Structures are given as structure tokens and as C-alpha cells.
Amino acid sequence: MFGSAKAEEPSFAKGPSLPPISSIVAAAPAEAPKKIQMYTPEFYQACAMGGAIACGGTHMAVTPLDVVKCNIQVDPKKYGGIGQGFSLIAKEQGLAGLVRGWVPTLLGYSAQGSLKFGLYEYFKKTYSDMAGEEVAKKYQNLIYLAGSASAEFFADIALCPFEAVKVKVQTNPGYAKGLMDGLPKFVSQEGVGGLFKGVAPLWARQIPYTMVKFGAFENTVQALYKYVVPKPKSECTKPEQLAVSFAAGYIAGVFCAVVSHPADNLVSKMNAQKGVPASQIVKEMGWVALFTRGLTLRIIMIGTLTGLQWGIYDAYKVSVGLPTTGSVEEPKKKWRPAPLLLLVLTRLLVARATVAADGMAAGDPSDIPSLKRVGWAYPPAGHATPCVAGGQSVGCAMIS
User: Fold this and answer.
1) pTM over 0.90, yes/no
2) Lesser CB count within 10 Å: N end or C end of the chain?
């Protein structure tokens, strides 16, 4: 009667077969990219990368202008002005002659730009912390100048060897095609030390240039947001902020060109003429020529160059989640009472004025019509108790 066979489990007890738990667990969302914190090693690395892209790319783009400028500085009688310099170089060396030296330009100014911008942010922060918040704010221009000068000191050491080969290639036709053959030839003729013989004039040119570049830029940004841009920086879109960066950079570049031009003439001459001391070059050129020869072209080139550099640098910073350069003090918002509060205060004042007028006419406060309209209740004569408006205590009144 009772078999030994195991009774079957009802089908409804088995329940539906479930897929493996791993197949129904939702995949974890991808981790959000980590935001770069200000003044961390990652921040300075980002600034250095932005500076390399900005300086290397822009200087390479204006290589034809640089070739003409250097040749005018070295041999003004032959190359004359800008137009004559372009046509003569293209005629004698072909169009390739106008872009000669682009490789040392790209590499040299990329190295310089990375140290210039990266170290500027580092020294600006370091000097501000050393001075303290109040002193740094009061003497912020000194912080800008000291930070930029310190950064440029190291940046020029990286640039100097490339600059020496670049000028030699650009101003001596047939000397070399570029960096690969020009650098070994330069070292074999003048030694490794010859690559750095122009570092002192380079400092004389670049340190004042960079001090003006960063100091003028920071102050121009503040002035543009204060007097030109119709809204605070925090309310501007990123493209609007980048437009301000370009405009401030171009204005700063004009000042940079004027300040650094005499040393630029000196560096070009020293690198083109082997073994000639700076004092002899100044004597040959004269002070007027030292300050003015090639200045117009340099203003055009440096103004555009500096504006583009700041625009590209800040665009890179924005692309990695950092704010644009330039500390701007946001205007303090004036306190304005809320519209509802204004409405309530207005109604209360109107009600009190109406009460006073009705009381003078009626004599008996309990019969004043305006009190009934606004829901006010007066206490008995001779008492001081809270006056009630709409069920809430709003003050005291003495009735005599």
C-alpha cells in the first residue's frame, strides 16, 4: 500500500527556475573621472602640459615671421623691411627657407612653456603662502612678478640650446637643414658650452618679458571683468572666459614685445656671429637700433603669440576641469528684501495709516471700520496688550 518510492514534490513547490545571480545584478556604473584638485602635483602637471602645448605650437606656427625677423636683425641692409625680407628669403632659399628651424622651435619652446607655466603656478602659490593671505593680497603684483621671474629663470635654461641652433640654421643659409644635423655641427664647432653662451642675454630678454607677460595679464583680466565685461566671471560661460583670456593675453603681449626687444636683438646677433661680445654688438648697432630694429614685426608677432598662448593654455585647463587663469574678486551682492516681505510691510504701513486716520475721525477705537477690515483687535482703554492681526501677535498698543 505504501510504496518505498519517494513521493514527487508538487510542481508548484519547485517554483520557476531562476537565472544565476550574477546575470541579473546590474553592472556598476563607470567611475566618474577624478577631478583635479588645485595646487596638487596633478594640477602642476596639467599646467605644465598646457604650457607646452600653448608655447610650442604657437611659436612653431609663426616660424616664417621669426625667420624674417632674425635675418633683419642680423643683416638689416640686405633684408630691409618685412615685405622685402619675405620676398628675398623665398627667392633665395625657396618657401622651405621660411620654415627653416621649425623643429628646434617646437621642441625648445615646448620645454620652455612647460616650465614657464607650471613653475609660475607653483611659485605663485609658494610665495603667497610664505607672505600670508593679507600681505599676498596687498602686494599681489609683487607675487606675480616674483613667481614669473623665478619660473622663467629655469625655463630659459631648457630653451637655450634649441634657440642657439635655431638662430644659426635660420640666419646662415646652407649651415644645416634643421636640428638633427645642426645640433651635432654646432657642438663640434663651438662645444657643448657654446649651446649656453646666450643664456645671459636670453635671461635679459625673457625674464622681463615673462614678468610683463604674467603681471600684465593678471591685471588686465581683473580690469576687463571690472570695467568691460558686463557680468561677473562666475556668471560668464567658458567661451566668454576664454575670449577674455585671449584679449588680456594680446594686450599683455604688446607690452612684452617692447620690454624684451633690445635683448632679443642682442641674442640674435650673438648667436649669428661667433665669438662677438655683447658690448661690441651694442656699439655696432647703436642704442636706437637696439630698441627699434624689427620692433614692428615683433609687436605683431608677440601680441598675437601671447594672446593665442593664454587662450590655448586656459582652454586646456578648462578641458581638464580647471578654472581659467586670473584671480577676480567677485562683486558683493547687495541685500534686497524679498518681494513678499515688501508686500507685507507695505500692507502693514497702509493699515496703520488708515487706523490712525479712522481713529481720529471716530473717537472710539472699537468702532473703527479699518480695524475690522484688516482683522486687528484693540485692547480695552488704559491697557497695553499685544495687538493681533490675522490671529498673530504683531506688537503692543496703549489705548488711553
Assistant:
1) no
2) N
